[in-house]
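Subject: Sanity check before I submit

Could someone independently write out the structure tokens for this chain? I want to compare against mine line by line before I put it in a report. The sequence has 115 residues.
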Amino acid sequence: QVPFVESGGGLVQPGGSLRLSCAASESIFRGWRMAWYRQATGKQREAVASIGTSGSSTSYADSVKGRFTISRDNAKNTVYLQMNSLKPDDTAVYYCNRPNSLTNWGQGTQVTVSS
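---
Independent answer below. Compare away.
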């Protein structure tokens, strides 16, 4: 069973925006800090943003700070990533997971930033 289902990726021009979603089962999502990760071709997977259980605590990688916003809806067991001012370097497959207790990865969603 795939624990996370990521969606919302696509092809966007530089400067554009996308909103990613990651849905999970309650047993996996509830009570856990959640994070978005990304992996570009030929590179290691890196953490992009994380959010605490209530949504009040967030952190971001320097490379996305001020451009990306992470949020969660605990009623829907879903975490979001609003991505603005996208750059070609943001091109990657984006995943979500629990940073304090990693579990199986989902299929991810491809984000391609290109003119």
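---
OP: Matches mine. For the report I'm noting this point. The mean pLDDT is 96.
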